[in-house]
Amino acid sequence: MPKAFQILGIISFLVSCWACEPKVEDQSKEDIALARVFKQKLMSSDIEGMFADSPTEQDSMLMANTFVENWVRENLLMQEAEKNIPKDLNIDELVRNYRASLVKHNYEKLIIELQLDSVVTQAQLTEYYNLNKEQFKLEYPLLQLDYCKLPTSVSNLSSVKTWWTNSADSTNYSLLLDFCGNYATYFILGKKKWIPFEPLKTQLPNNVSASQLQVGANINVENNGFLHLLKVNQRLEKGAYAPMSYIKDKAERFLLHKRKMKLLEEKKEEMYDREMRLKNIEIYTK
């Protein structure tokens, strides 16, 4: 019998045993080898119970066989990697450094979770913005607008155009907002959010350029199966200072990162001073 079928038979037997037998540990059960790569063996005990929750026995067999095949390939790769370790590569040192990095990262994360003040006030944001305003000059136009992109295949578009034209009326605006929420592929309504032109242009007809989107521009056009309704409320040109609302999230991240670095440095100095007083530190190069 070919070796592959033998393995499948063993897996089938083990799966049926795991599925049917009570969850009682049996010390006398034979531990069967499922695969071998050089001196490394995968035993039945290594995968016992892994696939017992599969919907069917066939699914369990398939998953177990896939696991065995992957185990063989991964171990072959590891064998080849072991053979080709450069002589100047100190694996033990790399492992130690990696472990130290993980332990340190975990402790720093704990310090930050317990001690970092994560509240950034408006006053702190304003101070940061004013001190770094030159960094926030725009490299592209920003727009505040209302925009609806609707498939022309949807019904009632004539009513949509009426609601759009008369959206200053709260009833018309509510009807428009509800309709766009159900049918629009993209829409921005009633938001004071600043939008860069570059990501917006992927939604617009190809013949609409940034220069056309001046304050007061009102576009009502059907193009390539979509109705585009767009009105520009405000615009900031390239070279203008980005408004605070546009850079707020970035500023908060920067301030929190700076605060985090300061906290960790203070914590290190605090530990240094404490252990120096306790004479747990000696520096012999001074």
Tally of DSSP β-strands: 7
**Proportion of helical residues:** 40-55%
What's the domain count? 3
* Main sheet summary: 5 strands, antiparallel
Mean pLDDT across all residues, rounded? 88
Low-confidence sequence ranges: none
The Cα radius of gyration reads 33 Å
Intertermini distance: 74 Å
Strand content: 5-15%
- Note the overall shape: flat
The secondary structure category is alpha+beta
Number of helices: 9
Give helix and strand order, one letter per element, not per position.
HEEHHHHEHHEEHEEH
What is the topological layout?
Layout: H1 3-20, E1 33-37, E2 40-43, H2 44-47, H3 57-83, H4 91-115, H5 122-131, E3 142-151, H6 157-165, H7 170-183, E4 186-188, E5 195-196, H8 197-200, E6 218-223, E7 226-236, H9 244-277
Antiparallel strand pairs: 1-2, 3-4, 3-5, 3-7, 6-7
How would you describe this protein?
The protein has 286 residues and is an alpha+beta fold. It has three domains: 81 residues, no CATH class; 68 residues, no CATH class; 97 residues. The mean pLDDT is 88. The chain contains nine helices and seven strands; from the N terminus they run αββααααβααββαββα.
Give a short synopsis of this structure:
With 286 residues, this protein is α+β, with helices and mostly antiparallel strands. The chain contains 9 helices and 7 strands.
Features:
286 residues, alpha+beta, five-stranded antiparallel beta sheet, two-stranded antiparallel sheet, flat
